[in-house]
Design brief:
The protein is of the alpha/beta class and about 500 residues long. About 35% of the residues lie in helices and about 25% in strands. Strands 1, 2, 3, 4, 5, 6 and 18 form a seven-stranded mixed beta sheet that branches. Strand 9 (about 220-225), helix 9 (about 235-250) and strand 10 (about 250-255) form a beta-alpha-beta unit. About 45% of the residues are buried.
Length: about 500
Amino acid sequence: MTGHPELGSLLPRDEWNGRLVANVHPADWQNPAPRERYHLVVVGAGTAGLVTAAVAGSLGARVALVERHLMGGDCLNVGCVPSKAVIAAGKRAHARGEATPEGFAEAMRRMREIRARISHEDSAARYTAEFGVDVFLGEGRFAGPDALEVGGRRLRFRRAVIATGARPSAPPVPGLAEAGYRTNETIFELTERPARLAVIGGGPIGCELAQAFQRLGVRVTLLEVGAHVLEREDPDAAEIVQRALARDGVDLAVGCAIDRVERRGAERVLHLKRADGRAEALAVDEILVAVGRAPNVEGLGLEAAGVAFDGRLGVEVDDRLRTSNCRIFAAGDVCMRWKFTHAADAAAKIVVQNALFGGRRKLSALVMPWCTYTEPEIAHVGLYEREARERGIELDTYLTPMARVNRAATDGEEEGFVKVHVRRGGDRILGATLVGSHAGELLTPLTLAIGSGLGLGAFANLIYPYPTLAEGLKATAGAYTRTRLTPTVKRLFGLWFRLTG
């Protein structure tokens, strides 16, 4: 229930899934004869593995890429691409004020079409022809500190990269496995709209899909053991999203405990205890589990390679992404706390420099943004206020409500804010949280500023097209510059005007 579906049973068996598989795991694929020795062998063709292989291959290295399932990994097949297509469909249905079973089926069909169309970018044929990579489809297993076996063939390497990603995990709730549940790996197989859906987990995936399916006409109950959804986010931001979910009709059961689950015919029944102590038997048609991820470290022969790992935390790496075997590196969800596609992309580039060119780039030097694609979105980069307090860093915080941004007013999307944290007494940006429409897009200039050492004051000097949502950044910078107008500065200005008047 939690593992990858078998290739032959990728559901539904339609034109679009057929095209997907033809690109990312073609049935007639013939593994090439191995080279005598590779500069780089990459295990796993998700984002981290694909970017590593593409960059190294483009630079002229001899590269082998090994994938046991579908190239493209979670992002293409069961993560970013399908989820954002479904979220977009939910947004359109919400704007029209109508959600029908036929509309749900069309939304899922369109998602499969988009996924199939995009899949060429991650295809075995493209990586062979465009990047000169030897693509091996099959189970890869280390046979020693400098060799990997796949399909009965041995690939010798100077360096290797473990990029096998992670998979959904499930809470130890009695009866859950027996009752049957879906994860992000199987929820996108749906072709007919379930009447009732229980989503276990109020993190980013749970909130995004709970809202999307509710908007597509599913009656959704979101179950979260914590006091509110998105507990790792800025509390003010999480509160706005929680209100938005409730406004859309999601039944929010926060502070909720699940005692057990049972199957009653076609129904799944979750026995709950709500925050107020009320016991409840919640009957649903489907359960979506979205509570965390476990690294894919089993069956790789890591012991034979001398690679230290932990079943819960993944492959152990240092700040340069080196494993305990100096020949082998790792990148992406299998070893990193940042489990984002863009984090895997950035880590892959670090690996290429460090593994092939003796580089000394560090993962900790990255400025890592992220976004939760609910409506409104939450986007964040840098420190949260609580993290600054824990580190003893004093902050000044500047906040602009989106209601004060004219474009947000004209669009009728005034919910949210721009919140920027700077070091006390100055304008060096240490963190930012944005809530609102297109918050993820608005975050990028702040990410650039942190990485480049630009202060918040620099945003006051930019010229912004009017009206745009980016004026929220301008207003926030203006709040900072006004603090520079101290009584002493005002007296000096007054003196100047008297002398020149």
